[in-house]
Amino acid sequence: MPRLTLSVVIPAYDEEESIGSCLDLLCAQAADIDEIIVVDNNSRDRTADIVADRAARSPLIRTVTEHRQGLVFARNTGMDASRGDLIARIDADTRVGPDWARTVRDFLTRDTDGRWWAVCGRGEAYDLPYGTAAARAKNRFSPFGRRRAPEVRDVPVLYGSNMILRRATWEVIRDRVSDRRDVFEDVDMGLCVRAAGGRNGFLADLTVGVSPRRMHSPTSEFVRYMVCLPRTLLLHRRFGLAVAAAALYVPGVVVLHAARLLVVRTATRTPIPAARGMP
């Protein structure tokens, strides 16, 4: 059975602190990755130089540019430019595990009936000043949180730091996905898959490391970020889920965030930086 080819798309905006590590971990899996596309979305720092340095060492890496500011525009440009049978979308601060690409390719290659249009996995924060306790607590609130589960289970949405679509899936939903910047683009994408008749699979063993910088954002900023979830559900006319998210999920996560922020401040005793990343 021929194995499916895999492209990895990485939108990047001012990611000089993380993009090098992200690319190094991907290049270490060159046997299972066919191309790595970094989409430079008007970076003002050394992101482009770092990517060029890594590209000089690895023929897998290439850069494309998207001048329209915003993650969704960079994501779409990268996925449109990709050539693989499978298109992964991760963040510039994602740290993939050593078997990440092989797990993805093997699972979707075995799925010869195309039952799963897209898959995603879990993200666990790294470099926390208080260890993994809050990350474990977050998983209790997360729709992806039940740790011991079957190899794959059906989920309504995708997780942007660790998601993979079939090329055929992208071609179906390309004109359905929203370009609004006030919604969760990954949730929107997963709901577009479902609306098109496809299924999103959550792979229990597909875990990546993600930056905790969102955890460092002030509570008011975090609230503005989280209200994107019910707004995204309303966009898809998922009214019941939108009400549940606004009334239960978002308040619970905000309370967790406020408690976590207090612990971070206590642990570091330094000013808490605002969350960076793509607007």
TrEMBL record:
SUPFAM superfamilies: Nucleotide-diphospho-sugar transferases (SSF53448)
Classification via InterPro entries: Glyco_trans_2-like, Glycosyltransf_2, Nucleotide-diphossugar_trans
Pfam family, one: Glycos_transf_2
Keywords from the named record: Membrane, Transmembrane, Transmembrane helix
Residue ranges crossing the lipid bilayer per the database entry: 239-259
Domain Glycosyltransferase 2-like as annotated: residue spans: 7-168
Protein name: Glycosyltransferase family 2 protein
Lineage start: Bacteria, Bacillati, Actinomycetota, Actinomycetes, Mycobacteriales
